[in-house]
Structures are given as structure tokens and as C-alpha cells.
Design goal:
- By secondary structure, the chain is of the alpha+beta class.
- It has a single domain (5-249), classed as Sandwich (Jelly Rolls), CATH 2.60.120.
- The protein is built from seven helices and ten strands.
- The strands form two sheets. Strands 1-8-5-10-3-2 form a six-stranded antiparallel sheet. A four-stranded antiparallel sheet has the order 4-9-6-7.
- The longest helix is centred in the N-terminal third of the chain and has 18 residues, at 35-52.
- It is globular.
- The two termini are 22 Å apart.
- It holds the Pfam family PhyH.
Length: 268
């Protein structure tokens, strides 16, 4: 197994960066990883995605959600190299510092590969799917290559965690239309920017975000890691998605208990 010192070397956040996150509930950070580290894990993760996604349905036969990306979960359980990446203390400490908590657990990871010609990812808030008691959640969105606008990088509505409308919508054509219409009558900035190599973003569970279509001939390869406060407790599910997440990502945990299942280790 190859050693990657950068995975556990701490990344220094400034007070301005922490304040920016508290206000906007997203932040993009440059040079979190170097090109060598990302190139290595691009190959490792891509190989595993291909192995696990052997017979994908043709794009034209999928719904909007299916056209948005190939989605595979908890790759850390499939490969020790990927586990070292997902368990990176460098990323986990950033997550903990931004959340202003004493430490973070893993909720789960997911690879999001938007194929060449892949469609939009509609507006949504991730925490719709999560049976978690507080909003002390954060997702690291890690492009494994430089990601220009033509590839469909992640877009944010800065500060939109304050909006309650749309929190009851799963990722769909309806969420794209309804949330977009709601955001049009706010002053929240719609942030659409490319990602440099080594640049990654962190966003809160209730921030509204989307991604454009991939109009290039290359796959937009992204790995994500979802973190939660290490003292996060399970809440009673309020929709089918949350029930499914309880069963899948928090096995054996009871409502009101800290989510300390074997799938939710403390990463920092």
C-alpha cells in the first residue's frame, strides 16, 4: 500500500475561512491535495467504480436522477487504499473545524461519476435524506481532476441554509424547478465556478446546491465524504429516504442514541 503523507497532514484554516463558512455554509479550498495524490486516487477509485458498475443502463433509459451520475457508496469498505483516502485526517479536521465541533464521524462516502453527456444534478439539500438530530453535518466534494464549467462542477446558493422551503423535496425535476423558483426571489448568491486540481469544497447538509450537465467527452470523477458531529444522535425518520439511511448507514442504532455503529467511526 502506497504511503501518502498529505492525507493526515493538517490543513490550516484562517479565521476568515471559518467565518465565511459560518455565513455561507459552503467553502471552496485550494491545494487541499496535490496533483500526484489526486492522480493516484483517481486511478484507484476509478478502477473500483468500473468494477462495481459493470452493466450500466444506457443514459437515454434513465430518469433525471440516474442521468446525473453513477453513484456508489462506502467504497472504503471495498478497498484499503480508498479507505486511507476516506479516513484522511486532513479532510476530517477541516470538517471538524468548519463545523466548530470537537470531532467528526463518518456518515458515509460516495463516488459521484458524471458520465460524458450526463445530465444536471437538480437543486436539492442533502439532509432531506438523513435521519440526523442536528445540522452539524458537512460534505467534502473532491473532484479527482480539474473540473471546468463544461464538466458540471458543484454550484451553491450561498447562505440558503436559512430557507425552509424545499427541504421536503428529494432530488428530482420537481426539486430543480421548485427550489430554483424559490431562490430567484432571494438575495442569495448563486455560485458557479470551476474547480482547480486539488481544490475541494465543503458544504452543509441544508445548503441548496446543484450541478450542471457534463458536456465534455470525459467523465467528471468526484469522491465525496460526508461527516457528522461525533456526538450526532439518530432522530426518528420523517420520510422513506431517512428510513433507508437509518437501515443502511446507521445499523443497530436506536432513536435518540449517538450514531456509533461500526459504519460510523470517529475520523478526527
Amino acid at each position: 500500500m502506497q504511503e501518502h503523507d498529505l492525507l493526515d497532514r493538517h490543513y490550516k484554516l484562517s479565521k476568515e475561512q471559518k467565518d465565511f463558512y459560518q455565513k455561507n455554509r459552503y467553502i471552496k479550498l485550494k491545494d487541499v491535495f496535490d496533483s500526484e495524490t489526486l492522480s493516484y486516487f483517481n486511478n484507484v477509485i476509478s478502477k473500483k467504480v468500473i468494477e462495481l458498475n459493470r452493466a450500466p443502463k444506457p443514459l437515454e433509459k434513465r430518469d433525471t436522477y440516474g442521468k446525473a451520475f453513477v453513484q456508489l457508496f462506502n467504497l472504503w469498505q471495498e478497498d484499503d487504499e480508498i479507505k486511507s483516502f476516506v479516513f484522511s485526517e486532513r479532510m476530517a479536521k477541516i470538517a471538524s473545524d468548519l463545523l466548530q465541533v470537537d470531532g467528526v464521524r463518518l456518515y458515509h462516502d460516495q463516488a459521484l461519476f458524471k458520465e460524458a453527456g450526463g445530465g444536471i444534478t437538480p437543486w436539492h439539500a442533502d439532509q432531506y435524506y438523513w435521519p440526523l438530530e442536528t445540522d452539524k453535518t458537512i460534505t467534502a466534494w473532491i473532484p479527482l481532476q480539474e473540473t471546468p464549467l463544461s464538466m458540471g462542477p458543484l454550484e451553491f446558493s450561498a447562505g440558503s441554509h436559512e430557507i425552509m422551503d424545499g427541504r421536503d423535496l428529494s432530488i428530482s425535476d420537481e426539486s430543480e424547478k421548485a427550489i430554483q423558483n424559490r431562490l430567484k426571489v432571494t438575495d442569495f448568491e448563486h455560485v458557479i465556478e470551476p474547480f482547480d486540481i486539488g481544490e475541494i469544497s465543503f458544504h452543509s447538509g441544508w445548503i441548496f446546491h446543484r450541478a450542471g450537465a457534463n458536456t465534455t467527452n470525459n467523465i467528471r470523477k468526484v469522491m465525496t465524504v460526508i461527516y457528522m458531529d461525533k456526538d450526532m444522535k439518530l432522530k426518528a425518520p420523517s420520510n422513506e429516504g431517512q428510513q433507508n439511511d437509518w437501515d443502511t448507514w446507521c445499523p443497530g442504532v436506536k432513536i435518540g442514541e449517538i450514531i456509533n455503529s461500526p459504519l460510523n467511526p470517529i475520523l478526527y
